[in-house]
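Review box. Two proteins, two foldings.
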Amino acid sequence: MLHGVVGFFEEEAGHAAEAGASASHTPAPPPELIFNLFGNPNLPVTNTLLTAWVAILVLLLVSKLATRKIDPTNPSRVPSGLQNFMELVVELWLGISERTMGWKRGRRFLALIGTAFLFIVTCNWLGTLPIGYLWVTNPEGHTVPLFRSPNSDLNLTAALAIMMIVLAEFFEFRSLGGGGYIKGLIIPNPLRWLEIFTRPLSLSFRLFGNIFAGEVLLLTMLAIAPFVLFVFIGLELFVGLIQALIFAMLSLVFLSIATVHEDQHNEPGEHDALEDDFARATHGQPF
């Protein structure tokens, strides 16, 4: 009987050790080291940074393939394939931007908002697809995932959020002038300072929290129910798309609010004049 009791506790200890090993593969908020650039420990490359580089390369490759058949001398040529899809994405964001900010400001910020959306959604999807389950041993001897969504790293989401808010404040300063901008910080809303600091927190933590939670969910399901993992992968791909859309839309709204004063200085016929200029520049062809 004593041997049976000892055997029971040994078995339970084995299960506990296995559970601890599985838990050790659960991602932690800090990104994991993959290698040191040029062997220099002061230049660490983490899996989130590596995935961000891959996302940039993917976007550059897609851009090159989508535009390789564009012929400026034949603007009437009907696009097809990848070019047609990317033009659809551009036109969708063009419509959203123009409805949110108007014709002039919408086209000014289209490239910024569209690029942010494409970069974020590419990062999210690269971290969700099965390549995220490739594991390597890093210089510290730890087994870590080779790829991980950059947006599960608070450093990147905070950097993106701060960049958008700084740009919004810059354009507001330029549209109001120094005196008007400083006045807006004090009168009539003294909580304007709180708004400046809470916006980047809201943008960064929302994106980080949703993507990091998704990675934890996928690794948990991989350990306990791998046969239904494809369902959760599909769910996280959708969540990654939605989170990229939310970040881009909120950035668009912040930029719209920051530059809304510019509409007050436009001449009555300026909108029509801009449309005429654009039509002449494109030789009367639709966008």
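Next protein.
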Amino acid sequence: MKSMFPGRKRNAVIVAGIVLYLVIVAGIAFVPVPRAFSGSTATDEASLLDGYRHVEVASVSDAMEKITGQRIYMSHRMSPIFPTKFAGFAVTVKLKKEENHDADALQGMLAAIDQGRANSVYVMVVEDGIDIAGMGGLMGTAMMSRDFSGAVIDGGVRDVAYLKKIGFPVYALGTVPSTSVSHYRFAGSNVPVVCDGVAVNAGDIVSADADGVVVVPRAKAAEVLAMAQDMDFKEHSMYAYIEKLKSIEEAVKKFGRL
């Protein structure tokens, strides 16, 4: 006997199929995504750097001292070739003094640039290098093309006119015309270094602005940023308060910040 409701039966089959499909899709949607593929680490890093790029280095320095009990900032000798502000993750490079005629003596220094990722800060220590240019226009161009945030050189810098022209920010101990070629040898990359008296490890946050350069250990980066942001908020709120009351004492009393 033929079904009295052939169309209704066919519709029921179609509906059941759609429901089954939706159940399968929903099940797939709720399968946990492994952390390695979720993009959360990249998001965390981007958020961290965005915070450091907007907070004042003086506040970062104060926060570091409060949290760690140490003053971890570079000296007045470490100066920018033009006014700048940047933050990024340290890529460390070390050069040792050694007279040589080895064409590959500095190859590792260049490899560290070519292997660096976006948002890196090139932190180079040149042994007794205050009058030796640790970098110049060629290295600066390579760093800029790879989206480095900037460079901090415990040594000299040259080709400053070109670096200014392309807008690549560099902090160094001074401007000199000399070269490291034939006078230095690469001694390691992404190794612990001491840059202008400050310990720097690969991956640390390097934050720089008109007030100078501060290094924040990666493990402390989120905690230091949160405190620095709070300090910034209080200080910026104090300006109008001081102008209104014409009293810095009252402002400090209210905000607890100096």
